[in-house]
Amino acid sequence: MKIRKYFFAMITVCLFFLSFMTYAGSETTLTVDEIMDKMEE
């Protein structure tokens, strides 16, 4: 069950990240590198 929950969590995070990337890309002119830099901070 732990593996299944972890797998489900990873999918959720991936979907959320993809949604964020799409939204950020359409709303701003940020590049992937700039977004990654903000994530690291």
Automatic annotation (TrEMBL):
The protein's name is: Uncharacterized protein
